[in-house]
Amino acid sequence: MSQAFTGSLTHLVVIEPTPASDGNRPIKSLWAEDRNYVRGSAADWAPVIGSALLTIENECNQNGWDGLGSRAVIDATINLVEEIADCLFTLLPRGTPAPDLIPESDGEICISWVIDHDRIFSVSVGDHGKINFAGQFGAEGATHGWQPTDTSSRRALEASLQEIVRQINRLFPWPAIRRAA
């Protein structure tokens, strides 16, 4: 989608385009995807991921951090999430928005992408060596499952994340352009 510019040489006005009608859901959906692609993009996820993990480490490192008997999020989980997020960043197409990181009461961390109430994909990571995932993809349906995570090498981790990458790409179906590692 594009922007329109108007005005004189000394006074430039940017006109943000809007869908022709509120009732036209396909157009609104395309606009929302385009906004997510541009606004949610980052040259690097590291600052976003690092900041979120630091907050989780500082606020969720003790049992009962949520006031309801939650398990502490341990350093091994934080380190694994950092490694997985870094790997996903290199495997996903350029422009894929950085995920939200959410501590869970079982001591795991959820890595989540949300487009709207009907399009979401989440990965739950703990120190137990497997990834649990679930997603909703609008009219395309839903998925859920788990898989082992091999962190013995970068190549092994990339191989174990291929199904996760495939599912995330269902949320953001633009052409794949692999980032340089």
Trace the largest sheet across and list its strands.
Answer: 3-4-5-6-7
What value does the Rg take, in angstroms? 19 Å
Strand residue content? 15-25%
Q: Mean pLDDT across all residues, rounded?
A: 81
Structural category is alpha+beta
How large is the count of helical segments?
A: 5
N-to-C SSE string, H for helix and E for strand = EEHHHEEEEEHH
- Strand segment tally: 7
Total domain modules:
2
| Head-to-tail CA distance between termini | 29 Å
Largest sheet: 5 strands, antiparallel
Shape: globular
Low-confidence stretches: 1-9, 12-16, 33-42
Describe this structure in words.
This protein has 181 residues and is α+β, with helices and mostly antiparallel strands. The protein has two domains: 1-39, no CATH class; 46-171, no CATH class. 35% of the residues lie in helices and 23% in strands. The chain is built from five helices and seven strands; from the N terminus they run ββαααβββββαα.
Q: What would a concise description of this structure say?
A:
By secondary structure, this protein is α+β, with helices and mostly antiparallel strands. The chain has five helices and seven strands.
Q: What are the SSEs and their pairings?
A:
Elements: E1 4-7, E2 12-15, H1 25-39, H2 46-59, H3 75-91, E3 100-103, E4 109-116, E5 119-125, E6 130-137, E7 142-148, H4 154-160, H5 162-171
Antiparallel strand pairs: 1-2, 3-4, 4-5, 5-6, 6-7
Helix pairs in contact: 2-3
